[in-house]
# Entry
Amino acid sequence: MKILRVCFITICTLSSFISMAQDASIPLTLEDLIPGGNSYAKYRISYPQQLQWWGDTPVYVKGDSIMTVAKSEKETDILLIDKKTINSGLEANGKGSIKSLTSVSFPYAKEKIVILNNGGETFLYNIETNQIIATYNLPKGTANHDFSNVSKTFAYTKDNNLYVSQLGNEIAITSDSDKGIVNGQAVHRNEFGIKKGTFWSPSGKQLAFYRMDETMVTDYPLVDISTRIAELKDIKYPMAGMKSHHVTIGIFNLETQKTIFLNTGTPKEKYLTNIAWSPDEKYIYLAELNRGQDTCKVIRYNAISGKQDATLFTEIHSKYVEPENPVLFLKNDPQSFLWQSKRDGHNHLYQYDVNGNLKKQLTSGNWDITEVLGFDEAGNNLYYISTEVSPIEKHIYQLNLKSGKRTQLSKEEGTHSAKVSTSGKYILDQYTSQYNPGKIAITETKSNKSHTFFQAKDPYAKITMPEIVIGSIKANDGKTDLYYRLVKPMNYDSSKKYPTIVYVYGGPHSQLVDNSWMGQARGWDIYMAEKGYVVFTIDNRGTSNRGIDFENITHRQLGVTETQDQMTGVEFLKSLPYVDTNRIGVHGWSYGGFMTLNLMLRHPETFKVGVAGGPVTDWKYYEIMYGERYMDSPKENPEGYAETNMVDRAGDLKGRLLLIHGDEDPTVVLQHNLQFVKSAIKKGTHPDLFIYPGHGHNMTGHDRVHLHEHITRYFEDYL
# Structure
């Protein structure tokens, strides 16, 4: 759920939004504010495209040109090459021209070679000599492209099989004909930080890959109604407490063209996560998790024989362990690696030797490391991002691995992301804050001096916008800070009372309130404020970047503590003289849809209207990996499943409730809403249901504008 959830939130935010309107008195429309809207693209801020490091030189695409970025105020951006010149070189080599530079990349730090694609072929192209270095005919319909710049080889998938292309020669690694077997793709439904299914060795001579056998998993029916006679589209959907898929890891040798599989043993229903190669390529390191997800073993396998070599160490937690990052070998010491763990309550770095002996804990404190960026050239310093400054900010740090000294490299307040140059001499720092729509700076790591080379203009300089307030209140434990965002109505008058909508998500791996542009206010938030609503969002316990105790307090009873915290937020709203306490509504999607139901059904006296999109209504209908981590299995936790079951609470509905679902949703299947409606009919309550045919977990394209118009109409009609 977390990957699609993040997609849902990201496409709703205003992190790279609206430019100046012609008339400040004309309100922004859903077409302006919602992705898929006819004028949405017109109102977005344009950041430098394809911004990346070419060695220690930052480059980006500007129109039909590739430019280098000035690294100091004394320098200027320089044209590296343009599309016209590239196409002349391709045509001279008898190749078709490229249409754009949107996918250009620089695979080699010290060579003027780029990767290009003309829609039919992929090239390694020398922009200095205008010569093609290599051509790859990646067939139409291929996916999961993974390039080794050392062996100059592409790995990719066709249907459910894995292939490599080395200098144009295609080699089939797998040839499974059963549709229930998947090779070279992400497994375990993208949990545990898994984003891909192939892993090149350092030399590019070996390729580790996932093989997932789903034949034992129950088929789940989705129906495609776009055909003359509706067609069945079965997917594999392992529900909580039912059979799970079996995953193995293969290693393909490019020279021998043979494949061996790691002997990961039994039980087969476990999670093989966070694959890493040793620098000498003799071993594969894995974080193996039992199905109960309370025990994580870091295990080393022999990459030649496939046999287990050693269990290096084990982490156990009474609730769950969630490894999301592979071991990271030190650049200057191949006998040591770094491991990220929340064992002391927050996500920190630990240094181990290759035999699993803990050498030292490198970071500590009541804050989380959210991303490790990489090393400098000598390997003496590590760069990472953390919440040390504030739970609602992210900053960049340099850590000296020997002395332990930490140096903050980000200068201004806000939420920072970064890319480290090849040598570690420079960092690209991209950041926003509540009143900063976006800046990008280059920081020299040695001197810690920065040069801002891009600054977005204030997109609302000539637009009348609602006031946005970011603040915090205490949870009902009297000590935990909960951060909120409050969007006041347009033309706010403190003497009036306004209808109020609580926008909620509230689930793991989320943070909807931080010190980023407009505090992450979404387009729909602004639209509703224009219509005279207060829009309120609070991050309850159970969300991210606040430590393991803050997150796992919801274990085995999802929705309970979260609802308490949301109601603490509602009590705060009721204390505001301009909030009409008789007109409070709630809206959320996915986990937020589940939370909408929790609030509507547990507190019907408070919420007059709710809109729940793609909601979980009963966790036994949700998938194993996510569901059993936070709820355990239905057999292990019958009380928890009963307490969090919204289907059984359908009779508690008092206000107006709109349920929305995509009829081909593979994440939260339509069965959730149908079971709720069935229960409501039996118990005599009357929710409304709206279906988006042909859509999955989120509505995309222009239908997304329709979705938000439909949600708006519901609140306008009943709130």
Remarks:
- Residues 2-22 have pLDDT under 50 and may be disordered.
- Residues 379-456 form one domain.
- The chain is about 15% helix and 35% strand.
- The longest strand covers residues 579-589.
